[in-house]
Amino acid sequence: MNKMKNGTPPKGMPGNGMQFKRQNPIPTLMRVLRFVIKDYPFSCLIVFICLIASAVTTAYGTMFFKTLIADFIEPMLKTPETAPSYTDLALALSTVAAAYGIGVLSVFGSNRLMVNICQGTLKNIRDRLFEHMQKLPIRYFDKTSHGDIMSVYTNDTDTLRQLISQSVPNMISSVATVISSVVSMLILSPLLTLIALLVVLGAITVTKILGGKSAMFFRATQKNLGAVNGYIEEMADGQKVVKVFNHEEDSIETFRRLNDELYKTTKNANGFANIVMPIMGNLGYLNYVLVAIIGGVMAINGFGGFNVSSLVPFLQFTRTFNMPISQISQQINSIIMAMAGAERIFALLDEPVESDEGYVTLVNCKEENGVIVETNERTGKWAWRHPHQADGTVTYTPLQGDVVFDGVDFGYTDEKMVLHDIKLYARPGQKVAFVGATGAGKTTITNLINRFYDIQDGKIRYDGININKIKKADLRRSLGVVLQETHLFTGTVADNIRYGRLDATDEEIVAAAKLVNADYFISHLPQGYNTMLTADGASLSQGQRQLIAIVRAAVADPPVLILDEATSSIDTRTEAIVAAGMDSLMKGRTVFVIAHRLSTVQNSDVIMVLDKGRIIERGTHDDLVAQGGTYYTLYNGGKK
Amino acid sequence: MIKKLARLARYIGEFKKSTMITPLLMVGEVALEISIPYLMASIIDDGVEKSDIRHIVLTGILMIVMALFSLLFGAAAALTASKASAGFAKNLRFAIFSKVQNFSFANTDKFATSGLVTRMTTDVNNVQMAFQMLIRICVRAPLMLIMALFMAFRINSQLSLMYIGAILFLGPVLLIIAKKAFPRFDYVFHKYDKLNESVQENLTGVRVVKSFVREEHETKKFHKASDFIYKGFVNAEKVVVMNGPFMNLTMNTCMILICWIGAHIIVGTNGTEMSTGDLTSFLSYTVNVLMNLMMISMVFVMMTISKSSAERIMEVLDEELDITDPVSPVTEVKNGEIIFDDVCFSYSKNKDNLNLEHINLNIPSGSTVGIIGGTGSGKTSLVQLIPRLYDVTSGKISVGGVDVRDYSIKSLRDSVSMVLQKNVLFSGTIKENLRWGNSDATDEEMIEACKSAQAHDFIMSFPDGYDTLIDRGGTNVSGGQKQRLCIARALLKKPRVLILDDSTSAVDTATDAKIRDAFAKYIPDVTKIIIAQRISSVASADMIIVLDEGKINGVGTHEKLLENNAIYREVYESQIKGADFDE
């Protein structure tokens, strides 16, 4: 998974790219909320109103209880003559029913809208993440492990779903319920409210302590989970090596240790989280008893006009508001935990995108009376459109594939240069080969031509234009690349080839396959060009995948080709067959080729021998052999 | 669903006690919790209404004591539930990991690394949550429901009849909701996995995407998929959220009915049948009944979500190990003689789609054998059969005169050392990696092996020498260095048979030759099988096998094959034009 690709800087320890300090969760929470509200302002407002409405109607219903006992049942029992009739009660109840009706509608409204808000926001976040990710520079992918990026899409968006769909609305409705309960209680008896609130305060303190403990173990759990995760991944990747070395028992032993650690912290984290509910629930009873005793004394003594009919609903309120209070304290914990995920999402979204100051673009053109004219037709001829800011004129340079490196220095970091003073000239149609040891900088040079990385010093010119002035997309469109590590996408073989040029017809695809002699093997696949490839083309051999990648580059028909060990996995026999096709593919194009097989390199117009980031020899095969330098030694060493 | 969870139940193991105690504690908690409202009613009726402070205080104290016990039970249940569920998860993870460790190559091929990681983390986590819910809520909710019903009936059976109506209405509604939601969730979760797979694919292929300037194309593709997921989730969740309003509707209707009927009963019987205090506790039981009904339906939904996780876990645990030790295994491999007797092999175990056909070979102990052949000709398949990484489909392979299937796997693989084509080093020092070959290897033995594999010199060029830390996957050494370390690691086993599967492809030709010389000098008795792309790597072998499309095309020495084997000659001629450059 973490395989080192040629020409990329080494990755740091997994997770390095995404570590950041623990921040204050409030701004992040606000940012999440802004995100939600911005996309769904109207729905959010309605949900908010619905939540309040449902809390208020619930409180109203409970309040009615006081009325029921005080204004109806008691008078009906004690003074039937002056008491209200059942008709009056029915009337009063229908008002409550109406309020309840509103409550039900509010619950429906908020629940239903919340589904769209929550899933919609998640979709928007995912889309934005992906869109943003597409714009990030290669460097970002070098320094960040795929596992970390994937977990942003999976774990972190999942915690965000919890947050948006549950924690936040629960929080709002809990707060609304608490407020409406407290207000109602204050109306019934300010003194008793104070007592009830004191107990609640105690309960909150308890939750906070437990929550803190839980969060501590939770963090430890996450860390242990990471360790277990990493170990599983490493062992699953090396599964076959484990088998060959009979190393099963040792790896099981190590896993047992990590797994036990994880168990211990999980047990504690969950334990402390679970224990909150019974504690809060039962503290609620304590509250109830206290209120009952004090309230009872007050009611009996008629203290401050307090009576039984007030005590009953008051007791009811102590119960209803105990629930949301404990919910709020729990939600706060889960919000804090969710913020860690949200921070990672925002960290990715805030990652600076690949900058592009290029203004020279690639356009279709035709020649009229010896002058290049821009056109919208597909002429198959291309030109660089170069606007000049100084005088407002536009010049057109035909796309030819002339590449010049002039004293280029490059390093993945400013401290350590890996390429020094690279000079090279590739005329249109020439074949330039790079030869040298692993790590000499061959792939790095090709990564500079398509501006995966920017150079520290020197100039690279394409058809005489400094490549910094060319729009990256247009620059890359003019370059065809076949990498050593082939990546295919889920889809048919034809889809994968069409990746090179999205509007290629089926005929063009077959023609391109025929050009590099890949047609034979593709037509012999179970469904020919329509054979489905999954999991990076796992059903194909490495050589077959490389062939498809070559066809993909061929169908794009670019003036410049970069072949980085493009045929390394194709065995020598098959390569002989492909070679003819490759030759016709390379005809008329500027080609940069990296290979360790001499047959691929030998007929190049110029061969560059690289050593530790410097070109130490250059010339044709015959020149270099005659020189008797490094190339000669390599050549001879091979011959032995 | 229940069946699946039941099958997973055997992994509860040593946490059986905690698992059993939790529901018992829950019963205690529920019993107390349910009696408390009764006391509450008594406080109002016999205390407040009758102005009996003594009664209020006494009942209050009783209530606090009960609350304390309830707290004790509840807290204890919370702890045992966490212990049981975390322990269950631990055992489950361990079972999966051990199972995977015992996978044969054929088993391993079926599961991708990412799939295994998900199963041991996310899926186990889901099951753990469901399990915890099962032993807590699944006991608590129905119990509370029943007890609350019982208590309500005790207060007033007439009024309680209303519950039956409520349950008759709400029960089916909740059931229908849960039932409708199941398949929708199942569907969308499956699609969700696919979405994540496509992100992964985009990540690994980022250079291709950028080279072809297909960022917009990819984004469009992703938008389409994520839109699909959005609709799927909305489709599933919009069903589940109906729980809330229906619940609310039922609860509120009950409240109003209780007020109406309650008032009639109290006034009609002049408070003898039912008191105002009774009415209060009756109301709180109503909330209880309905809340728990809802809980049960929520658990239902949760279990569905964890169902697919349980399924994925079972997929690994149920995977049949296709290579196991024989009943009375041979434990000693006498020598390195290898005989292939009419061996046919197919990865899919399908006789009509053979990867190797009728292979007959006789390799004497101590000889050096080269294997040459095109991509997909079956070179790797052939050698993987020797240490029994796969079993033959038909025919027989014997090493040291004994059928490989009669050895214990451990002793066979200890004697047949193989350097894989796709090899890995593990995070740790070079020494630790080398010790994979032999955990008791002395420093001298390690140096000796590394010298043979031409690795000693570059190891010593590192500042930390043999204690140099290797990054995960061996990313901080070059391809050629990695291959040489892997060879050294295999040599440390002191095997009878050493197989190199294209293991020197990144090593330059001169070093490659030195490694071969060292083999000849230091391990003359070991049978050496070398798969290579380069003729130069096999030219000096005692015997060269040319494979073509799963069949032996020719066997002989370099000279003989040049004379009589067309394929060999063709490969030779294509290479003689060109040597290799690397390192």
- Give the amount of beta strand of chain B, in percent: 5-15%
- Distance between termini of chain A? 37 Å
Strand order of the largest sheet of chain B: 6-9-10-3-11-12
Which protein chains make the most extensive interface, counting residues with beta carbons within 8 Å of the other chain's beta carbons? A-B, 171 and 166 residues
Largest sheet of chain B: 6 strands, mixed
Q: How are the strands ordered across the major sheet of chain A? A: 10-13-14-7-15-16
User: So what's the CATH class of the largest domain in chain B?
Assistant: Mainly Alpha
Global structural class of chain A: alpha/beta
Q: Pick out the low-confidence regions of chain B.
A: none
The helix count of chain A comes to 19
Shape of chain B: elongated
CA distance, first residue to last residue of chain B: 58 Å
- For the record, the count of structural domains of chain B works out to 2
Percentage of residues assigned to helices of chain A: 55-70%
Helix segment tally of chain B: 20
| Mean pLDDT, all residues of chain A | 78
Please state the overall shape of chain A, judged from the principal axes of the Cα atoms: elongated
Task: List key phrases describing it.
heterodimer; A: 640 residues; alpha/beta; 6-stranded mixed beta sheet; 4-stranded antiparallel beta sheet; 16 strands; B: alpha/beta; ABC transporter transmembrane region fold; Rossmann fold
Question: Outline of this structure?
Answer:
The complex is a heterodimer of chains A (640) and B (583). In chain A, 61% of the residues lie in helices and 13% in strands.
Report on this model:
The complex is a heterodimer of chains A (640) and B (583). With 640 residues, chain A is an alpha/beta fold. Chain A has 19 helices and 16 strands. Chain A has a six-stranded mixed beta sheet with strand order 10-13-14-7-15-16, with helices on both faces. Chain A has a four-stranded antiparallel beta sheet with strand order 2-1-3-4, with no helix packed on it. In chain A, strands 6-5-8-9 form a four-stranded antiparallel beta sheet, with helices on one face. In chain A, a hairpin with an 8-residue loop joins strand 5 (403-410) and strand 6 (419-426). Chain A is elongated. Mean pLDDT of chain A is 78; it is low at 1-21. Chain B has two domains: 9-317, ABC transporter type 1, transmembrane domain (ABC transporter transmembrane region fold, Up-down Bundle), CATH 1.20.1560.10; 338-576, P-loop containing nucleotide triphosphate hydrolases (Rossmann fold, 3-Layer(aba) Sandwich). Helix content of chain B is 63%, strand content 10%. In chain B, a hairpin with a 2-residue loop joins strand 11 and strand 12 (551-556). In chain B, helix 5 packs antiparallel against helix 6 (157-204) and helix 6 runs antiparallel to helix 8. The longest helix of chain B is centred in the first third of the chain and has 49 residues, at 53-101. The mean pLDDT of chain B is 83. Chains A and B meet through helix 2, helix 3, helix 5, helix 6 and helix 7 of A and helix 2, helix 3, helix 5, helix 6 and helix 7 of B.
